[in-house]
Write a structure and sequence with these properties.
182 residues, 2 strands, flat, mainly alpha, two-stranded antiparallel ribbon
């Protein structure tokens, strides 16, 4: 290992050795890229297969929106007349009884919650009345504040106009007028 020279502080022999040993060859780069493509294709293939297997579990609303094919069970119906030899076929969708029970339970729960609506409506009317009262109070406060500010402004202006006022009093009156909110 050689020491870097003082004349050229940017030229380090050790850096050159590290660069030479760590540069991958074109063959290894190509192998890595081909492995990436292989993994990408494998991931796409597995993802599409997995999505096909999950189609039967999608809710019917999504299936209808996406216009996806659904699996139907065909059952033969006994003929209405014994003389007719044709068999009629009726297509009925598969119904999950557990899902129907859960749906009925949630409908019952919703109906129970709907019974709470009159109390909620009364509470909303009370809240609306309180908000109107608060708004009226706020309007009254603004009117009173404006009246007080007008009276203060008239008082300060009368000090300024008064002939017996001295310069410090006039200056103080102007400062108080500037500090009024409106």
């Amino acid at each position: 290992m050689t020491e870097p020279s003082i004349q050229s502080p940017t030229n380090f022999p050790l850096d050159e050795q590290m660069e030479a040993t760590h540069k991958p060859s074109k063959e290894t780069v190509m192998v890595k890229q081909s492995k990436r493509w292989l993994w990408l294709l494998l991931g796409l293939l597995l993802g599409s297969v997995a999505s096909l297997f999950t189609l039967p579990y999608l809710p019917q609303v999504i299936v209808n929106q996406l216009h996806l094919p659904t699996r139907m069970v065909m059952q033969p119906i006994a003929p209405a007349r014994p003389t007719i030899a044709k068999k009629q076929v009726v297509v009925t969708p598969i119904v999950n009884q557990q899902a129907l029970k859960e749906l009925q339970t949630s409908i019952d729960t919703l109906q129970h919650h709907f019974s709470d609506f009159p109390q909620l409506k009364d509470d909303m009317q009370t809240l609306s009345h309180d908000v109107r009262a608060l708004h009226q109070t706020q309007t009254d406060v603004r009117t009173a504040q404006k009246t007080i500010e007008t009276m203060q402004l008239h008082s300060r202006l009368s000090w300024i106009v008064h002939s017996s006022s001295h310069l410090p009093q006039i200056r103080l009156a102007w400062e108080e007028i500037v500090l009024l909110p409106s």
